[in-house]
Amino acid sequence: MKKIGTYIFLVFNVFAFSDSFNENEDERTILKQEQRSEQERLQKEFQKREEIFNQLKSEKTDKQEVSTNEIKFHISQINLEDNERLLNEIEKENILGKYINRDLGSTDITNLITDLTNRLIAKGYITSVATISEDNDLSTKTLNLKIIPGKIEKIILNEDKTLDNLKKYFLVDTKAGKVLNIRDLDTTTENFNYLEANNMTMEIIPSEIQNHSIVKLKNEMKEKFTVSVLTNNYGEDRQNAIWRGGVSINIDSPLGIGDRVYFSYMTVHKKKPDRSWKRTTESLKPGEIAPIGPKGYDPRKDTLPYKRDLDLYNFRYTLKFNSYTLSLGSSRIENTSSFYTPNTVYDMETVSNTFSVNLDKVLLRNQKNKLTFGIGLKRKHNQSYIEEAILSDRVLTIGDISLNGTTTFYGGLLGASLGYERGMRALGAERDKNKGVRSPKAEFMKYTLNTNYYKPLTQKLVYRFNTNITYSNDVLYGSEKHSIGGVGSVGGYHRTGNIQGDKAIEIENELSYRVLDSEKFGKITPYLSYSYGKVRNNKNNSKYRKGYMSGAILGLRYNMKYLQLT
Questions:
Q1: Locate the Haemolysin activator HlyB C-terminal domain: which residues (predicted)?
Q2: Same structural domain, 412 and 521
Q3: What is the rounded distance in angstroms from the CA atom of residue 157 to the CA atom of residue 366?
Q4: Helices (H) and strands (E) in the chain, counts
Q5: Nearest CA-CA partner of 1 in 347, 390, 345, 342
Q6: Rounded mean pLDDT, 446-460
Q7: Any idea what the CATH number is for the domain that residue 351 is in?
Q8: Are residues 232 and 215 in the same domain?
Q9: Dihedral (Cα; 19, 25, 28, 34), 10-degree rounding
Q10: Is residue 375 part of a domain?
């Protein structure tokens, strides 16, 4: 009996780690899919923005050649009136400094005004201009200039009905009366077009009011409601089912304000064998031994059937508000599986519930760069049972902050994210009081650095590079460790074993080729990836404290409106 008890204890530890892997793999798969879609969307957005900016640059006023016959005045001081502070002091000094203490003619002054106007355009103020002030007497050696800001008279969305005005309130990152900046309109474009159902176009037209413009937005919505069939072969083995299937529901703008709701459910072919022969501990009489199988069962020649039950639920809600993005997420995993001892079978059940809320803010944006700051809170509740006896019941509450940047780099898209996570004493979370130095910490600190590069080599061939680094000086629970070798990680190991650690680095290279890109028939993309990962565990002196693995994947992704196959 002692051997069986020891065996159960060891198996429980293996299952406990596996459950954390499954939870992380499900989240990691969704995040990788979202990253690929976001990279493609941003690449198109930056390309379009670059085309618009290049067009604006081509429309800039070129400098004129200075004539030797024109009258010139010595200018020792240049005053620039900039009531809206569209240019900072350094920019003013860099431009004006080239013309102070010089003899200037009309051509020189025109070139100075051109430099100022071009700088305004480069900063996104495409309807603002620099000009000469009315009160000028060049004989005083002083030149007075001013910047005339181009403002927005009004913003029109479709027919400007009640629902249109509500969308403007949430999605338009500028207002009537403000100085027009193309970067604010870029955020507005992103807020609309992140929804697949939206197709927003923008036009800037002159207003009857001097130095004002009208921004006309037109948005045509396609199908708001999409139901898709999901399938993948991410299962660990035949006992736990290799193939999974399910359905996803996506609703664009359910409240009419540019928000989005996403829900998915996946499961396996379930097996629920008869377990009526099992007895609970409470039902046993003193001295009675629990049965090891149904009547007539002989462990030497019979095999008891295993149990299989897996349900994966995922819910997400996204709301855009000007330069802010609010995201709410909830997921639930219910997994029942079996493991065998020398003479019987035991059923183990794990239930994981996660709720998260995140708020992101766009800090900086121009034609080539985007910088955002994020703050979030996550609550994880994990429970494990063997038969009907509870083995663990743990709640972790995690706060995080992140700084995320994206820029164009050698014709591709380079992104980086620096994050900090902290286990918190909130929402019923576990505390670390009286824990040993080698015990996993609930009030941990963890740092993450993720970089990614997306480069279209041709119209169909794409290269992706990802690096994920995790660093913590604490001993982490399995759900918070960096796991390597599962789905969405180093290939070739999700059915043979994973490694995880408190410190880790993971590098991935992928080449993909878009064979088919059709709105009617979907997208077919074969891909080849090679990855390497290394981990290390704190407060662990055994030979298993560190490890590494490398592997390759040759796979195929198929996505269409109503079917997703990976």
A1: 212-557
A2: yes
A3: 24
A4: 5, 26
A5: 342
A6: 92
A7: 2.40.160.50
A8: no
A9: -120
A10: yes
